[in-house]
Amino acid sequence: MNIVDFFLGPYLERSTELIVLELLAFIFGVWSVWLAKRANIWVYPTGIIGTTITMYLFFTDRLLGDMLMNAYYSLMSIYGWWEWSRQKEGKKVRQITTMTSKEKGLGLTLVLVTMLVTYMVYRLTSTAMDLSNVIDIFTSGVFFTAMWLMARKKLESWILWISADLITIPLYAYRGWGMLSLQYFIFTILAFQGYYAWRKSLHKNEL
User: Fold this and answer.
1) Is 7 helix (H, G, I), strand (E, B) or coil?
2) Nearest 5°: CA angle at 130, between 59 and 174?
3) CA 181 – CA 166 distance, rounded (Å)
């Protein structure tokens, strides 16, 4: 099987509706990360559209961990939207900062708790625990924490995004979601750019 057949083969048996929805999720997902790189609050409404569509796609394929993670993204986007829009005395409350020691401990706890919850969902639904689902459990924990840190405008959120994106690229390709795999490849590039853009902004604010 060549690379073209590997990526395009699954779409031959997929309905037109799902292909169109995956394309829309791809567009809104990339747009959302591009806005995040620029610390633009519109990252959240575009993100909500993308994650809601993706949640439905994963529901049709019984990818429960991914589906729950995108449901969480949608809810956390509402929280992030509120956090980024808050102002005090005409100045935004949330500025780009780095994690405190307390936040690092909480972040690690969130990774582990999310992994445990995702594992329990797989067990309760009697889903086979193959290697791809084990990887999904791990990336769910990382993505969960990255989204929380993004809502709080923490520079380290980009490091978690990059780490989980790199793992997700081959995972989604293996599962037959070629466009989403490409999407996460683009996410990785944007995440590197986002990290350096936020770090530059952070250093500028410290001067």
Assistant:
1) helix
2) 65
3) 10
Question: Would you kindly state where each structural domain of the chain is located, as residue ranges?
Answer: 3-83+98-206
DSSP 144-205: HHHHHHHHTTBTTHHHHHHHHHHHHHHHHHHTT-HHHHHHHHHHHHHHHHHHHHHHHHHHHH
> For 65-111, what is each residue's pLDDT tens digit?
678 778 888 888 999 999 999 988 778 888 999 999 999 999 999 99
Neighbouring-strand partners of residue 92? 87
Indicate the Cα dihedral angle 125, 175, 107, 112, nearest 10°. Answer: 40
Q: What is the C-alpha to C-alpha distance for residues 179 and 23, in angstroms, rounded to an integer?
A: 7
CA–CA separation, 46 vs 205, rounded Å? Answer: 27
CA 191 to chain centre: 11
Handedness of CA 43, 175, 112, 190 (dihedral sign): negative
**CA atoms of 53 and 204, how far apart (whole Å):** 37
pLDDT per residue as tens digits for the range 94-153: 899 999 999 999 999 999 998 998 888 878 877 777 888 888 889 889 998 999 999 999
